[in-house]
Design a protein that fits this description.
The protein has one helix at about 125-130; strands at about 1-5, 15-20, 20-25, 25-30, 35, 45, 50-55, 65-70, 70-75, 85, 95, 105-110, 115-120, 135-140, 145-155, 160-175, 180-195, 200-205. It is mainly β. The strands form five sheets. It has a six-stranded antiparallel β-sheet, with no helix packed on it. A five-stranded antiparallel β-sheet has the order 17-16-15-14-18. β10 and β11 form a beta hairpin. The longest helix has 6 residues, at about 125-130.
Length: about 210
């Protein structure tokens, strides 16, 4: 096996493993974690430069920010994917997005060859994703059936966070004494400012995908 070198200058991006020029493990959505490609179905392609729009664009910027990538997982047919969605064509190119959470683009469909290309190093560490969400509203799923939505003001390397304008949702399970079925009840409250411990966090994502 050989290690795929990261396409980013950030040294902490996770590396993916290539086995016989194919992906040795599943390729997952960097946002929700669902499987996009099963193991050993995609071919590792290098020296294929393409300017892919960034998943998160800066605010108040009129032009689309793009990054030139050269390394990809490639598949020839759409049904090779476990989960994928397509955007409308932009400048003749259709981009690939996660079908579950609609995050992307995670790749593109070549208009000439009709080959699908997926970013080979698109799994970022949580801190990289959270850094892009500063001063924006996020969704945080926590242990003990707690969920919070709020504006992210600060975080540290342990994923401890400070959120403002928070809506907290707590789900409790009660047993119906008549038919012995479980009943799920939700209670909500508004919190002006909240400190969230990193060791209690299960998932962080934009809130609209979990509304």
């Amino acid at each position: 096996m050989t290690q795929v070198p990261s396409q980013s200058d950030e040294p902490h991006l996770q590396e993916e493993v290539v086995e016989e020029n194919h992906n040795a493990s599943c390729v997952k959505c960097p946002t929700c974690g669902c499987i996009i490609l099963a193991a050993k179905v995609a071919e590792y392609v290098t020296e294929r430069p393409f300017k892919l729009p960034l998943c998160r664009q800066k605010k108040n910027v009129s032009t689309v920010e793009k990054e030139t990538l050269t390394e990809w997982w490639s598949v020839k047919k759409a049904y090779d994917f476990e989960n994928i969605g397509f955007t409308h064509a932009s400048d003749g190119v259709k981009y690939l997005v996660c079908a579950d959470c609609e995050a992307g683009p995670v790749g593109f469909l070549c208009p000439e060859t009709h080959i699908h290309f997926v970013i080979s190093s698109n799994v970022e560490e949580p801190l990289d994703l959270i850094r892009l969400s500063l001063d924006e509203r996020i969704y945080v799923k926590m242990r003990n059936d707690r969920e919070v939505r709020g504006r992210l003001h600060a975080f540290d390397q342990h994923l401890n966070m400070i959120l403002s304008q928070v809506e907290e949702t707590v789900t409790t399970v009660e047993l119906d004494e008549e038919n012995f079925e479980e009943m799920h009840k939700q209670s909500k409250r508004q919190i002006p400012m909240l400190f969230v411990r990193g060791d209690a966090i299960i998932l962080v994502a934009p809130p609209l995908r979990h509304a």
